[in-house]
Amino acid sequence: MLTIFETIEKIAIKIDHAIKTEDLGYSDTENTSGEDQLKLDVKSDYIVEEAFKNVSIVKALVSEEKEGVLALHDEGKYTICYDPLDGSSLADVNLSVGSIFGIYEGELKAENLVASAYVVYGPRIELVTATRDAKPKHYRAQEGLFNFISEISLDEKGKLNAPGGTQQNWSKVHKTFVDGLFAEGYRLRYSGGMVPDLHQILLKGGGIFSYPGTSDKPNGKLRQLFEVIPFAFMYEQAGGQAISNEGVRLMELIPAHPHDTSPCFFGSNYEINKLKEAYGMKV
Ligand code: AHG
Ligand code: MN
Ligand code: MN
Ligand code: MN
């Protein structure tokens, strides 16, 4: 896995430079999810693709910004599903954005995820990696080199609440649940960028991030292979939980198509169990 994580470190430095120097405008194309692509989305995707072309253990790539699967090395072992620049529309208001990587072996489904990683481009460049045998590892870049900071563990109960999706399109059950957390004194922490929003909860002891199914997006907005599953793995490895609106572990998802989405809830045990009760799921 080292080669892949080392490659992600190089990608992170290059994408951070692109964010700081390239044009923040829109390209004239859209991606498979029907989103207008920023020039930065396209450039970041190019940086990732070029980097993994030199890593022979990478069999193929799936990207938020590509239609299908891009074959790289026949003799490769892993398929990397990635979001080259998440929350990209926040870059032009100078908010933190990120990159997300899911590393799969075999069929593209959650149980075949062997590792995940994400990068946060903010006041500093930070990287978190997770493998099946350990807690997530947190690194920070200094002069272009990543230094290990600590392992990440979620407390049983947190203080932060990151409620995604358009509020007027939430179900009554979800609205009651979210309002109940605020009544308990939880603090609202939602920037619209899932990477910094989920990173903050992981580092600040816990809470819950939710992007439910809504009346306008019944299957949610976040893509399974390169947004939902990589973070579900992170949260479970950190001692928390990650479930869908049916109370199913997100680590059991089997996407039918590379860009399939899923309602998703990531958090500490107390908050996820509270959500299960509110939704009438088995705790
Ligand atoms: P991307 O920029 O890669 O398309 O993803 C953006 C996602 C994610 O970062 C965030 O959680 C979500 O969009 C926010 O959606 P809303 O604007 O609907 O809250
Ligand atoms: Mn997008
Ligand atoms: Mn994204
Ligand atoms: Mn993106």
Q: Give the class from helix and strand content and strand pairing.
A: alpha+beta
CATH architecture of the largest domain: 2-Layer Sandwich
Order of helical and strand elements? HEEHEEEEEEEEEHEHEHEEH
Separation, N- and C-terminal Cα atoms: 35 Å
Number of self-contained structural domains: 2
Placed side by side, the strands forming the largest sheet appear as 4-3-5-6-7-8-9-10
Mean pLDDT across all amino acids: 97
Cofactors, ions, other ligands: 2,5-anhydro-1,6-di-O-phosphono-D-glucitol, manganese (II) ion
* Number of distinct beta strands: 15
- Our count of helices gives 6
Gyration radius from CA atoms, angstroms = 18 Å
Query: Uncertain runs with pLDDT below 50, 5 residues or more?
Result: none
Per the principal axes of the C-alpha atoms, what is the gross shape?
globular
- The CATH class of the largest domain turns out to be Alpha Beta
CATH topology of the largest domain: Fructose-1,6-Bisphosphatase, Chain A, domain 1
Major sheet description: 8 strands, mixed
Considering the protein shown, what is the CATH homologous superfamily of the largest domain? Fructose-1,6-Bisphosphatase, subunit A, domain 1
Write down the oligomeric state: single chain
Helix content: 25-40%
Q: Proportion of β residues?
A: 25-35%
Catalytic activity: beta-D-fructose 1,6-bisphosphate + H2O = beta-D-fructose 6-phosphate + phosphate
EC number: 3.1.3.11
Main location: cytoplasm
Subcellular location: Cytoplasm
